[in-house]
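Sanity check record (used in CI):
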Amino acid sequence: MKTLGLVLIIAGIAMIVVRGFSVQTQKKVVDLGPVEINKKENKWIGWPTYAGGIVAVVGVVLVLGSRKK
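Expected output for DUF3185 domain-containing protein:
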């Protein structure tokens, strides 16, 4: 549990610092035999800042909980 707690703490801090990332996808618009027209779209995948804080707090609870045993 201690290792999982440390991983959650690191992930929580990373989620606070990096609030999301952008992914580029390619979508086919027209397909007329040998002619194709594609469209590139950027999609933002993000999370709220407090989610990183919650993950970090759960990690701290797991680390402190494993020390008491």
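Residues 28 and 38 are 4 Å apart (CA to CA). If this sentence no longer matches the regenerated tokens, the check is flagged for review.
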